Amino acid sequence: MRKITSVIAILILVFAGAYGSLFAYSEAFNRAGEKTILALMHILEEAKRTNGSYPVAVEETEAFRNAQEKVWGIFPGPKMAYRLNGQEFDIYYYQRPLGPHHGYKSGVQEWYFEE
What we know:
alpha+beta
């Protein structure tokens, strides 16, 4: 009986630790995504000041790649997507796990969640 109680207690601790770690990683992933969006907004605004308009594609530029934040300094951060709509842009990424888009729309200057 004591062994069964010990095994159950250990399993509860393991599952609680795994859940806590997954939750902490998910929060760090989303914070990294928001930081990356803020950095990319500055890059895009600078490009508009320099060239008079937002760039059509930025995913392959070095500035875009350098702005990508890592999760906890070692894990890859969210993969950003950039979409230009006339004189407005959207920057977004997929939230984890299996979540909606989270991003920023420059036309209305607000953050959004898209499911």
